[in-house]
């Protein structure tokens, strides 16, 4: 039976003003280690990446709550889209310096790729966990229908002022069911609890909708040809959000990329296989 992840306690720094945006930053791991800047996905927070970050021995893993999520307030001077987040994340990367490894999960993978393609400060390496290989809005089948239904639900709730509906635990449970692949009952229960606790910690309905539109229409693919740093793609062979067929095409679009697929795992590698992901990342960066 797989053990339930038990992330180490994060050190919460005072609120930073990053490119004009108040940001709560969490740091895990070795305070003297080489830095890793880790960006979480849509409707996530630093909590989601804590199991992975706590296993990156020897590294100082900096995990901010993206503005509009977790404890970070929403942007007041820009849209919550890829460009808005990339500008903000580029400032964080510049503060940490060129020896930093840049990591992103899901929507965070799109932001990380945009940063890496355009940043004045180039990271040491790029790690994309469950990267979005093609826009969800372009996908067919169950993925496309699910994306359309999610967008309709969110926009409808926003028009009706049903903020509580978008924070309801039933939506968190739906996310758990659709993305969790493990058969370990203890791990499934832990993931469900995590989603229920943090899925609704978005700042405003407006900021959530902006990010949702950006996540549904964006992907890593347009940025890949412009990225020259070594890149590691970690994906789940049963990922329904970012299916493996698209991952192979995405890897081929980079100048220097390695794709590793984990069998029997879906879109929650950071929850279901954090130790495996940490080993892959340490080995890749050390090569």
From TrEMBL:
Key words, A-Z: Hydrolase
Source species, domain of life: Bacteria
Record keyword Hydrolase present: yes
Domain AB hydrolase-1 as annotated: residue spans: 36-279
This protein's GO CC annotations: membrane
Keyword match Hydrolase: yes
Molecular functions (GO terms): hydrolase activity
Alphabetized Gene3D superfamilies for the sequence: alpha/beta hydrolase
A Pfam family recorded for this sequence: Abhydrolase_6
Name of the protein: Pimeloyl-ACP methyl ester carboxylesterase
Lineage of the organism: Bacteria, Bacillati, Actinomycetota, Actinomycetes, Pseudonocardiales
């Amino acid at each position: 039976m797989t053990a339930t992840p038990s992330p180490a306690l994060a050190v919460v720094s005072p609120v930073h003003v990053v490119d004009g945006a108040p940001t709560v930053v969490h740091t895990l791991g070795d305070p003297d280690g080489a830095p890793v800047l880790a960006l979480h996905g849509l409707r996530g927070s630093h909590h989601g990446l804590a199991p992975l970050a706590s296993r990156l021995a020897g590294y100082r893993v900096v995990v901010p709550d993206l503005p509009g999520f977790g404890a970070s307030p929403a942007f007041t001077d820009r849209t919550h889209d890829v460009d808005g987040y990339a500008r903000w994340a580029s400032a964080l990367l510049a503060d940490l310096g060129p020896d930093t490894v840049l990591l992103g999960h899901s929507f965070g993978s799109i932001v990380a790729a945009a940063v890496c393609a355009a940043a004045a400060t180039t990271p040491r390496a790029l790690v994309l966990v469950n990267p979005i290989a093609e826009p969800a809005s372009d996908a067919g089948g169950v993925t496309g229908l699910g994306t359309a239904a999610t967008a309709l639900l969110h926009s409808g709730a926003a028009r009706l002022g049903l903020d509580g509906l978008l924070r309801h635990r039933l939506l968190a449970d739906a996310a758990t069911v659709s993305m969790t692949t493990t058969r370990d009952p203890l791990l499934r229960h832990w993931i469900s609890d995590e989603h229920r606790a943090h899925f609704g910690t978005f700042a405003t309905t407006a900021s959530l909708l902006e990010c949702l539109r950006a996540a549904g229409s964006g992907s890593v693919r347009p940025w890949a040809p412009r990225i020259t740093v070594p890149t590691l793609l970690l994906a789940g062979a049963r990922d329904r959000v970012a299916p493996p067929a698209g991952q192979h095409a995405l890897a081929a679009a980079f100048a220097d990329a390695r794709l590793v697929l984990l069998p029997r795992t879906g879109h929650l590698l950071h929850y279901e296989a954090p130790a495996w992901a940490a080993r892959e990342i340490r080995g890749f960066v050390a090569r």
